[in-house]
Write a structure and sequence with these properties.
Blueprint: H1 3-6, E1 10-13, H2 19-27, H3 29-32, H4 38-48, E2 54-61, E3 64-72, E4 90-96, H5 106-120, E5 125-128, H6 135-143, E6 147-154, E7 157-165
Parallel strand pairs: 4-5
Antiparallel strand pairs: 1-2, 2-3, 3-4, 5-7, 6-7
Helix pairs in contact: 2-4, 5-6
Length: 171
Amino acid sequence: MSPEQATLYDFRPVTEKDLPMIAGWLAEPHVAEWWDDPETEIAGIREHIDSISVEPLIVELDGKPIAYLQSYDPHLEDDHPYADQPFGTLGIDVSIGVPELLGRGHGSAIVRQFVEQLFEEGVPRVIIDPDPANVRAIRAYEKAGFVAFDTRTSEYGPALMMARDATQEPN
């Protein structure tokens, strides 16, 4: 049975105790390629623990942490490059930390489940912004129902802007 059909993931807030584990994930080659250096990222995640604009989460499968996910509201940050999105839009970023779980459908299944939860909470649109060269991520997001709508370059680097709207039928 594929992850899309059977798996339910749990999403819990990141705590200070999770930071060494996340730092380990950030050092994994499949993650390090797309994120800044672990020290910089961990400092940012630590700040986000008490943030109102960014919600850092640990994704668990059968009680075991497997991924980092953050959602953010581009309208709660001054000069956010995605503030042109409709009010209520949330952005997400996700990285599977455990290398053995790559290529098994977890990325798209995690994103699909999380986005469905956001839609149930009334979020009208969810965006995600993979690097245009990150083919694996783009494919996973397409499987989760996201559609590319723009290419941008911002302080975060090059981005393929992808969105899924609550009114859109899931794949």
